[in-house]
């Protein structure tokens, strides 16, 4: 099977975490026929080969990005306008998605970028509480309830073909958790931090070009044909 076929099969069969704290709801878009079609189109276009990828690990999907489309860091508007994959989903922009696709353009565009990288999250499914996005680390009981689930789901994804060095999208709580998580579960040789896209867009927008440059400088060496 190709990397893309493995991803699509994984998301169609993904387990939903159980026994979560009261009030926590799981974002699960994969029971939608449209989302299944969108994810198939995306992954078979950009991952239809057997090359390993470098993992870029976010926190967990949000309501308007991966929690809607099933594709990490890709909102419905980007999916249609940037990737030419039509959809009837609510065309809201998601801040992280806006940064990610500007960064992808700086690294040569989606075809070249996805040849080398795979976006995922510490937890592959997102959460909401009281209608608002909830990060896995925002509730200690949630974090503890998810530990083994997240380790098992990351191992399944590594079987697609993962490189030994990965990147945390988040230089605060996400990288702190990931380093300890990785030490306990021995998933990657090393996890390196990058600033989180949403943090950049929300708090450092005036320095957007600078942060795109940081990503470009950091990730380009992991793209063998970047300078060709």
TrEMBL record:
This is DUF4918 family protein. It comes from Fulvivirga sedimenti. Transmembrane segments: none annotated. Gene3D superfamilies: Uracil-DNA glycosylase-like domain. Residues 46-213 form the Uracil-DNA glycosylase-like domain. It comes from the Bacteria.
